[in-house]
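So, does this match?
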Amino acid sequence: MKEENFLNIISKVMNNTSLLGDDCAYLSEYKIYVTCDNLIENVHFNLKTTDAFSLGYKSVAVNLSDLASNLSTPKYILVGLSLPNYIDEVFFKDLYCGINEICNKYNIKLAGGDITSSKHICISVCALGEKNKITARRKSNISLGDFVCVTGEFGSSALGFNILNNFNIKKYFQEENISYFIQKHIKPEPRIYEMFEILNNINSKNISMMDTSDGLGDALYKLSTINNVNLEIEFDKIPHHPDLKKISNYKDYIFWGGEDYELLFIINKDDYQKLDKNLFHKIGVVTENINTIPPVLIHYQNNTYDIINKEIYNKKVFNHFKGK
């Protein structure tokens, strides 16, 4: 089964699914956002390639990224741990030191959790954030000519993952860049600072946004189909480390590598002009209705292009349950 099959079953079994559909749920009666993510040993991380401190930091960061994509200020986390009996006090302390560092950085309080035994490490973090005067959702009132924008760079985390798991790739890169790519993977930074820059500089309520945890291609396709518009993207405007081009399939790293935890959003051009161009990069525009041409067109300088449609999306996107 695929993840979408499980989600379809949930939608049929549950009487009320009005809060489902986004990575964050907005609880309007309490004016808070809530999100939850799991990190599973040998699925999302391996103790041979990451340390406990970075693992603790990342387990919170991935949740804060979801809050940032809704322009929600993070306030509280709850941590659920399932641990095998070989985990010692040093690992456990280092894990919580990583959690503590990111909580201190963004003024977040630990509000509780649970600890159980397990054959493998499972870290489940629930994060809660408050609603701000401006919010963002995947589906919004966007218009033709609006700008498609991103933060950060793409493909570096996926390259870091492959460097950790394939020593043959290391020969293409200098030592300082190897360390850089690995850190991008094992200790990502949620775009909380960039979120506040948006909140402090624009007033529009028509923002379509999500993070790129499952890849830029995944996010582009989803924003396109959810909002029923076509997106035309200029590849050369997508931020990425120049060393990526040392890998023959570097485009796959950029679009489908995942775990970048950057923000992809659509806003009107007047609002874009109010943002810091060192932090926010315009990579494309909203064009036609989705029914006229493929959802996402990627243009290159040599007048060629790629498309991201349903067939390409299903082929390229990461599937947790592939082969099951």
